[in-house]
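Run: sequence + adenosine-5'-diphosphate -> complex structure.
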Amino acid sequence: MTESTTVPTGASTTASPVLRLRDIHLSFGDHEVLRGIDLDVSAHEVVALIGASGSGKSTLLRTVNLLERIDDGQIFLQADDISDPRTNADAVRARIGVVFQSYNLFPHLSVLDNITLADRLVHRTPKAASEKRALELLDSVGLADKARAFPDRLSGGQQQRVAIVRSIATEPELLLLDEVTSALDPELVGEVLELVRALKSRGTTILMATHEMAFAREVADRVAFLHEGRIEEIGPPSRVLRAPERERTREFLARFL
Ligand code: ADP
Ligand code: MG
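>> structure
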């Protein structure tokens, strides 16, 4: 991936997916958690990963961000094989936004500093420009008045919205969201989902694990059902969620009725 900046990419790559996973295998000890995952995420596409707890959703997201080392397979971000052992992981992570369930913000930094930190340190954006952009983003999500606040003064929903704003402040090529609403009180879930909806309409490319089936149905272009480290079924939500072809998908979805 480090060499790619000097290599002409050619017009054909612009049509290639933002993310390509090819036959991803990963074991923890003798437990094979990812058992041959193939998945493409196209530009501006939202793909939702659903599946039981322990099916491998978080592990899959972590492999994309190079937080887990895969045993076999390939991961391409745009044209770059980021699973190549020579890959600079920090350079890859600078291209990918990530938001986890909780504990996303630095408690000792203001909202504004949380959002601008990566932009200023990793991308070397001047402070004034970085803060201007952060304030615009905060304003667009109704949190401009929280810019100088510290995370502990914000509700869980507000903190998660700030975490999402931070993840897109550097304009990543891909956004990974791992159950971003699951640690929230039910009344705070809606405002976070509203923000994800807004990102989709801005054209952000998103791979997200979620247990919010109604939300997946509404916002995802495709839904992938993971079962024991394999994609059991994938397709548009109108099919996978409403008319699943696989018995295991039906069993899983029955839990949400
Ligand atoms: P999900 O996000 O779908 O709930 P995970 O990806 O978190 O699933 O976990 C998949 C499986 O991998 C589970 O059996 C989990 O216990 C196991 N696992 C996850 N991380 C580790 C780890 N660091 N060490 C050992 N086992 C792990
Ligand atoms: Mg998980």
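>> summary
The chain has one domain: 17-255. Residues 17-255 form a domain with the Rossmann fold fold (CATH 3.40.50.300).
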